[in-house]
Design a protein that fits this description.
CATH architecture: Alpha-Beta Complex
Number of strands: 6
Helix content: 40-55%
Radius of gyration: 18 Å
Shape: globular
Number of helices: 7
CATH topology: Lambda Exonuclease, Chain A
Largest sheet: 6 strands, mixed
Structural class: alpha/beta
Order of helices and strands: HEHHHEEEHEEHH
Oligomer: single chain
């Protein structure tokens, strides 16, 4: 029998990344009354699929996710101010909302995001995530810090607390919790992120928008 070839090596690299991804996230079933910030900051139907059928991301997407985790780890260990990776849980109308901020300061939070290119304005789903962290940690402003994997550029955006938006997101969290309890799919939320979604072929969404 011949030794491994290029295809085997490539598959083993992907398997190594997947093992890191799986170990970090575990395999537990989350109860429907516990909703994570990341569940709410994206399409609810995608979150519903992740929580119910759990289709894993592609090998390529897992590599990107793990590389992003590495950047978060470096910044968490080496960033000179604040406390790194703080978790918090609060209740909203019988639903537990849980999230983990990258960095918590006295009056603000910091969120690090790895991207291919720096956006002209922060992405809406990242802003939504930051708004829920402001509610969880009772802070007034957040800083979204984008780190480009392509050219090494860094850009920070200041996000002010928006209680109206927070209330909208909390209602969205309750909606997802109810959908999980009843076994009913939420409506899809078409957007430019659909082209990266592992459930795009089964959700039935149309009219995918272009990226900013």
């Amino acid at each position: 029998m011949s030794s491994v070839d290029e295809n085997h090596i490539e598959r083993m690299v992907h398997r190594a990344f997947r093992s890191v991804w799986e170990e970090d996230r575990g395999g537990r079933i989350t109860p429907p009354n516990l909703i994570y910030v990341t569940d709410v900051a994206q399409c609810l139907l995608k979150s519903w699929y992740q929580r119910t059928i759990g289709e894993p991301p592609s090998d390529e997407k897992i590599v990107i996710l793990v590389l992003g985790d590495d950047v978060h780890y470096i910044l968490s260990e080496r960033f000179p101010i604040g406390e790194g990776e703080q978790s918090a849980t609060k209740e909203y109308e019988g639903v537990l909302i849980r999230g983990r901020a990258d960095r918590v300061l006295a009056d603000s939070i910091l969120e690090f995001k790895t991207v291919t290119r720096i956006p002209k304005a922060p992405y809406e789903h990242h802003v939504d995530q930051s708004q829920l962290y402001l509610w969880l940690f009772e802070k007034e402003k957040a800083y979204l810090i984008y780190v480009s994997k392509t050219d090494g550029k860094v850009k920070a955006f200041c996000i002010d607390k928006d209680q109206k938006k927070i209330n909208e997101l909390l209602r969205k969290a309750k909606q997802l919790s109810q959908s999980l309890k009843l076994g009913l799919r939420p409506a899809p939320e078409p957007g430019w992120l659909c082209k990266y979604c592992e459930y795009a072929s089964i959700c039935g969404a149309t009219g995918i928008a272009k990226e900013k």
